[in-house]
Amino acid sequence: MASPTASPHGRTGRPPLTSRAQIVAAAREIIERDGWERLTVRRLAAEIGVGATTLYHHVRSKEDLLVLVLNHYLGTIERPRLPSDPRDRIIAAAVAMHDAAAAWPWAVEIVTTDGFLGLLDESALWMVEDIVAAAEDYGCTPAQAIVVFRSIWYYTAGEILVRANTARSRAGDLRPASLSRLDASRLPRLAAIGDHWATVSQGDTYPQGLRALVDGLLAQAGPAVS
Amino acid sequence: MASPTASPHGRTGRPPLTSRAQIVAAAREIIERDGWERLTVRRLAAEIGVGATTLYHHVRSKEDLLVLVLNHYLGTIERPRLPSDPRDRIIAAAVAMHDAAAAWPWAVEIVTTDGFLGLLDESALWMVEDIVAAAEDYGCTPAQAIVVFRSIWYYTAGEILVRANTARSRAGDLRPASLSRLDASRLPRLAAIGDHWATVSQGDTYPQGLRALVDGLLAQAGPAVS
DNA sequence: CGGACTTTTCGAACGTGTTCCGAAAGTAAC
DNA sequence: GTTACTTTCGGAACACGTTCGAAAAGTCCG
Predict the structure, then answer these.
(1) Which residues of B80-90 are buried (b: 16+ CB within 10 A; e: fewer)?
(2) Which residue of A124, A149, B72, B151 sits 20 to 30 Å from the alpha carbon of A215, by its own alpha carbon?
(3) Footprint of strand C on the protein (CB under 7 A)
């Protein structure tokens, strides 16, 4: 594509045929066309028309590549207008964060890696900023605000992960497979619940749990001066 | 080991050299001796003295194998004596669950898979039973109790996952890498926190967040009749 | 022009989990 | 004893992410 006619750089060395931007663009193309499971290093290289190992000179690893793609997607999300009430603002921001992650199942593979947030662009950190800011507006100290975000993040990441791996297999969720034939003497409450578990597990309890978590966290921080 | 002299079965077909129990035992041996990262299918097969692909006649997949090993470990945990107060009991049970998972980093690979709880033996389900029972004792309906467990599980699984992938890489946690040089005009609160994030992130905030979550969940369920 | 240096490209190879298919080793019936 | 059937075993092969080392294709300097 890029005509390698003249030497566009003042730099030395063999002129590159491939650019990081090109790789990311091709990866997005594959993800949207064939699904993210089809995104492999060799396929990506073939799509660009280049050797597989060449990619590793522009990207440290596949995970690194996914972070790049994720950052692009996060950049396209518009920062939502949030409620003025601090508590509602935290919840709204968390839900936005959750929905964004849930929309891209492949994000799960990255979301839990080392300093995940450290890999994000500034354009994506508004989620963190908004939650921390709202917590402080409520009356939290900076340290408390960090705990608030951390806890919300744990809860959200866990839900995303279970959700992603549940969707992958038909019969889902974390319900015990056959609650019916449990030993009622050792596990009476589970046995009593029985197949009711499946019914409840069908629904989306993320917002409910989130509200509980946020209320509990804010109650810890300060006695709701309002 | 098992002498294949006579025919111990009334069954037909070639008599097996390998048993599922033998495979699980060898897997545990490798995990304890060389670390769980060294547990590969080929190495496990070599340890037993059998072809690699043979294992797949006794175990559906490596994940399946790990579930078997995990069940064994969970079976060795003694069911803790829990406080009588329902709220404290939920927290104690959750902490026990968390500690168990945190002790075996390799459990993370399974913990989020499809119907995870459905893969567990009865000997490991007491954690679920205890939490559900305590929630009901507090005044929750069965449906509410399920939500309580689910939420706790999400939060716990998320923490475990982030913890595991953090420990893997030295510089850790989910803190933004260089909070110092953030654009203070767009992300003022994060910039203000700066490197304080690292300090707070060092500590273990799991119990704190857990208490907040449980308090919030129980407040949702009923107005604490005590 | 010709060598030194620098950067990019890529084929070969490794170790991973997993699938396929044929060979091995028993029992059961005739 | 021979034939059929059934189960277990394991070598070959595949796609995957990744590493290594050598070749390619430039610039720069003498």
Answers:
(1) eebeeebbebb
(2) A124
(3) A 11-18, 50-54, 56-58; B 4, 7, 10-15, 39-43, 52-53, 56, 61-63
Closest B-chain CA to A121: B176
Least CA distance to A191: which residue of chain B?
A: B129
Chain A interface, mutation test: which of B111, B146, B186, most A Cβ atoms within 10 Å?
B146
A86-218: CATH, from 1.10.357.10, 1.25.40.10, 3.50.50.60, 1.20.210.10: 1.10.357.10
Residue A71 CB contacts under 8 Å (≥ 6 apart), including other chains: A119, A120, A121, A123, A124
Looking at chain B, the domain(s) classified CATH 1.10.10.60 span 20-75
Residue of B nearest to A110 (CA): B165
Q: What is the pLDDT of residues A54-108, one digit of tens each?
A: 999 999 999 999 999 999 999 899 889 999 999 999 999 999 999 998 888 888 7
Q: Given pLDDT bands bounded at 50, 70 and 90, which one contains residue A53?
A: very high
List the one residue out of A200, A211, A149, A151 whose CA is nearest residue B158: A151
In a 3-state reduction of DSSP, which class is residue B183?
coil
pLDDT per residue over B148-193, tens digit each? 999 999 999 999 988 887 766 555 566 665 666 678 888 999 999 9
Query: Whose CA is nearest the C1' atom of nucleotide C28?
Result: B12
Inter-chain residue contact B118 with A177, CB threshold 8 Å: yes
Give the fold, CATH level 3, of A20-75.
Answer: Arc Repressor Mutant, subunit A (1.10.10)
Listed range (A187-201, B40-54, B171-185) with the worst mean pLDDT: B171-185
* Cross-chain Cβ contact B162/A112 below 8 Å: yes
Q: How far is A224 from chain B (nearest CA, A)?
A: 14
- Intervals of CATH 1.10.357.10 along chain B: 86-218
- Judged by C1' against the alpha carbon of A56, the nearest nucleotide is D18
CA–C1' A37–C23 (A) = 36
DSSP codes of every residue in B90-126: HHHHHHHHHHHHHH-GGGHHHHTSTTGGGGS-GGGTH
pLDDT of residue B92: 98
